[in-house]
Design goal:
Chain lengths: 390, 470
């Protein structure tokens, strides 16, 4: 627990990459679990989405007029939970790692991104008709130990259907809403979403201080909240399932990389039962060539952050199928080794072919191993991009 | 015009014939003698055209797509611009050059000033070796992360081309400390990946690459080329200096045709470099004490480093390792046969002939024009100041530049530094380790050149005062 809300500042590659990694995979497909995952279509007509289509669409955006973050900054909460509409892009990514009353793992993922196509204008009439922002959101819910999935993704042009309200403390796309308490020092958030076949309502409380990016040279700003306590419910036609657990929140705004590009990421978030939290970003080329880097951010139970790089850290596929090309098929089992850290990570969700804006896979994971010589278990989320489907 | 190799096969025959004589005449092939360095004829060039080419032409033709670069660096600080550069280049930092490649992608790539420009008292000095360059990091990591903002097929192709080249050379160019340069090892690594006749790049080395750990070098000032008959510390760069300068293009050059285009203006660049003059000491000088120091210089230094005044002289002599006594690793590696395969490569390539790469087993005594600006001293930058150079007993074994802020010590003639108690082996923090100059590391030694050790402190101070005038 924390008292008065405080923030921490660390200028570290690990945190920057954690934030960027969140965006890079935040717009990937949250695996299409439920049959016929639906897509809202408030601005793009019936365009068949592909990386190329989105790149082409976003290539037409105005460069000028957006405010690029510069210089030193200080995180201000709860304000920075809300939108930064003058930034060219921004994202909110929430990963909740939960259990039901029987101890069965469950997981909820929410990723909301806004891409500015033209700067906001004081001309109210223009706001009404011109497409100035493209919103994308994805929600995925896993139950029954990860085997049962519900997932949808939606696009919106904003204009009321998606946006942010600083006074009310809300960001949303349709009826998918992340709310935050607006009082000074508040630590509470809520997330609610209604999908075709499932409803989710989560109450979240920040259990560790947020950690902000601090490198003044970076073209973006952001922060992570490495641990929030969570309680809530998942409602399906089979009934209501109370759930509880922990969550991780990523937030970024500014000059963020758009979908696509030559890099692929393996991003792992782990929340261990000893109270520590770990974020790893493994960066590699999609063409399979070249060096692979690993950047990590480990928060101890008190919330103190430590950066880790590949000098001391490895994140590798475990028992990889040597007969399969390295970047074909999503690896399900990983081994993480680092200073006083040895974890085996196994995907809980089913392995299904995906195709969306950026081909990728998001899946809940179960973790077992040791930290600081003590056996630990945990739950987490693995997000992967840049693989070919077999 | 350079006699560009029209018949590479014939060149190979010549090399093979010469190699056949190697046992008999091995001492001559790819080697120079200790002693006087003879001058060689240089192709004439236009210094003004050379300056323009140096600052604007894409002789390093691969790099980061401009759009991706601007995502992370939207503005160039005024102090990093050179307004006289052309077009886009006027907007870029002085060490970067823009061009549009064959696929229509604008590329930002490094240029010669990455290593050959530095600041003193806020002023950018072209030709001054960068004493603070940082080659301790793995460039592959930088290259990979620079791909974050690359988008589209053409940009990706250009970025991947550059990243692939860095993959080939990265293992060979990481120094143990900041401020020293791995250029020689970089050059050998590039040769290992290229066919010497076609310059075609091979992902796998075609000849044994150099050892992975580069021997450290202090970047020598360009203005010394006014006087020097050969290039580099071991005088390895003989013959047409413009040929040797073309090696700067080796990271990216796509073949002999591109090299020929660069070679067309290389003599102009050589002429420009040879026209540079040392920057004058920018602060007051005690003329009386300097006059006293001039006499000491004449007795102690001029025989090797030359004389100044109305009748300047420069001996152009290279000295035996036993005589100079400075760290032998670099000169030994250059002449013990372990690098001969690279000299063979040069001889077979458009970059030179059998006379081009010919090091001597020693170090040249350089001209001392602008020596005040060129700290730290010795070929490996192991001695942080002139005061320490002239008082060998005071040379720090372990030291670090003071960089917050970086400032120049006018009395000691060098960048302010702190002496450390321990070297890199006992330091756990990698950030501290890489900023520690550890003279116990191989190639990083600070011994030798003990001339001046018998001087009194007053005479040493007078000599330093005189050196400020050069």
């Amino acid at each position: 627990m924390i008292g008065k809300l405080s923030t921490r500042t660390v200028g570290m590659a690990g945190l920057c990459l954690a934030v960027l990694g969140a965006l890079a995979v935040g717009v990937t497909r949250v695996i299409g679990g439920s049959e016929g995952a639906s897509g809202g279509d408030a601005g793009l007509g019936s365009v068949a989405l592909s990386v190329e289509a989105v790149e082409a669409f976003l290539a037409g955006t105005e460069e000028s007029g957006f405010v690029r973050p510069s210089g030193t900054w200080q995180l201000a909460l709860p304000e920075d939970h809300g939108g930064h509409s003058l930034s060219r892009a921004e994202t909110w990514v929430l990963a909740a790692h939960l259990e039901d009353a029987e101890g069965q793992p469950a997981s909820v993922q929410f990723a909301l991104s806004r891409f500015g196509l033209a700067p906001e204008t004081p001309d109210a009439a223009a706001v009404s008709w011109e497409l100035r922002s493209l919103y994308h959101a994805a929600v995925a819910v896993w139950q029954g130990g990860g085997a049962e999935m519900h997932a949808e993704e939606r696009f919106s042009r904003g204009a009321g259907a998606a946006g942010q309200d600083g006074e009310a403390g809300e960001v949303w796309l349709d009826d998918w809403t992340l709310s935050y308490a607006t009082e000074e020092g508040a630590r509470d958030l809520t997330f609610t979403a209604r999908l075709d076949s499932v409803r989710v309502a989560l109450e979240l409380t920040m259990a560790k201080p947020p950690e902000q990016t601090a490198d003044a040279d970076q073209p973006f700003r952001g922060f992570v909240v490495p641990r929030l306590t969570v309680s809530g419910r998942i409602e399906t036609e089979d009934g209501v399932t109370p759930v509880s657990g922990t969550a991780w929140l990523d937030r970024a705004w500014g000059e963020l990389p758009l979908p696509g590009g030559p890099l692929g990421y393996d991003r792992l978030q782990v929340q261990l039962d000893d109270g520590s939290d770990l974020s790893l970003v493994r960066t590699r080329r999609r063409d399979g060539r070249g060096v692979v880097t690993v950047d990590g951010l480990l928060f101890d139970p008190a919330g103190e952050a430590e950066t880790l790089s590949e000098d001391v850290l490895s994140m590798a596929q475990h028992n990889a199928d040597a007969t399969r090309p390295a970047l074909v098929g999503f690896p399900r089992v990983w081994r993480v080794s680092g200073p006083e850290l040895d974890l085996q990570v196994e995907a809980l969700g089913p392995d299904r072919e995906v195709s969306f804006v950026v081909g990728g896979w998001t899946v809940p994971v179960r973790v077992e191993g040791e930290r600081a010589g003590v056996p630990v278990t945990g739950l987490g989320t693995l997000q992967m991009t840049g693989y070919e489907t077999p | 015009m350079m006699p560009f190799r029209a018949l590479p096969g014939l060149a190979a025959v010549v090399v093979l014939l010469l190699t056949g004589c190697k046992d008999e005449e091995g001492a001559r092939l790819y080697r120079s003698e200790i002693g006087a360095v003879s001058a060689s004829e240089q192709r004439p060039g236009d210094p003004a055209a050379g300056e323009r080419a140096l600052l604007n032409e894409p002789y390093v033709s691969c790099g980061i797509p401009y759009d991706a670069y601007r995502r992370v660096a939207p503005e160039t600080p005024t102090a990093d611009r050179m307004p006289d550069r052309e077009g886009r280049n006027a907007e870029l930092p002085y060490a970067l050059t823009s061009h549009v490649n064959a696929d229509g992608v604008e590329i930002v790539s490094s240029n010669c000033l990455t290593c050959h420009a530095g600041r003193i008292d806020g002023e950018l000095i072209v030709g001054l070796g960068d004493a603070f360059g940082d080659f301790t990091a793995d460039p592959r990591r930088l290259a990979l992360q620079s791909g974050t903002y690359v988008r589209g097929e053409a940009e990706t192709k250009a970025w991947a081309h550059w990243a692939d080249r860095l993959e080939g050379i990265a293992p060979y160019i990481q120094t143990r400390t900041v401020g020293v340069n791995p250029a020689t090892n970089l050059t050998w690594a590039l040769m290992a990946h290229r066919d010497p006749e076609t310059l075609a790049w091979s992902e796998a080395p075609l000849i044994d690459p150099p050892p992975q750990e580069p021997l450290p070098l202090s970047v020598p000032p360009w203005w010394n080329m006014r006087k020097k008959s050969a290039m580099f510390y071991t005088t390895i760069g003989r013959g047409d200096h413009a040929h040797f300068m073309l090696l700067a293009s080796m990271l990216c050059v796509e073949g002999v045709e591109e090299l020929a285009r660069i070679d067309a203006y290389a003599p102009d660049i050589r002429a420009y470099i040879s026209s540079l003059e040392a920057p004058p000491w920018p602060w007051p000088i005690d003329a009386g004490r300097a006059a006293e120091g001039e006499a000491i210089y004449a007795d102690e230094c001029s025989a090797c480093h030359g004389t100044y005044g109305a009748e300047e002289t420069y001996p152009n002599r290279i000295y035996d390792l036993d005589e100079i006594g400075t760290d032998p690793a670099y000169a030994t590696a250059a002449t013990d046969g372990s690098r001969d395969r690279f000299y063979d490569w040069v001889a077979r390539s458009p970059y030179g002939d059998v006379h081009t790469a010919a090091p001597a087993p020693g170090y040249i005594a350089p001209p001392l024009d602008g020596v005040w600006a060129t700290a730290p001293y010795l070929h490996n930058g192991s001695v942080p100041s002139m005061a320490a150079l002239l008082a060998p007993a005071t040379r720090p074994r372990f030291w670090r530049h003071l960089t917050a802020p970086r400032s120049y010590d006018r009395d000691a003639m060098g960048w302010r530094f702190e002496t450390l108690d321990a070297g890199q082996a006992s330091e756990d923090d990698p950030e501290v380790r890489r900023t520690t100059y550890d003279t116990t590391l191989r190639g990083y030694g600070n011994g030798g050149h003990e001339y001046g050790s018998d001087l009194s402190p007053a005479h040493r101070a007078a000599l330093i005062e005189y050196l400020k005038t050069l």
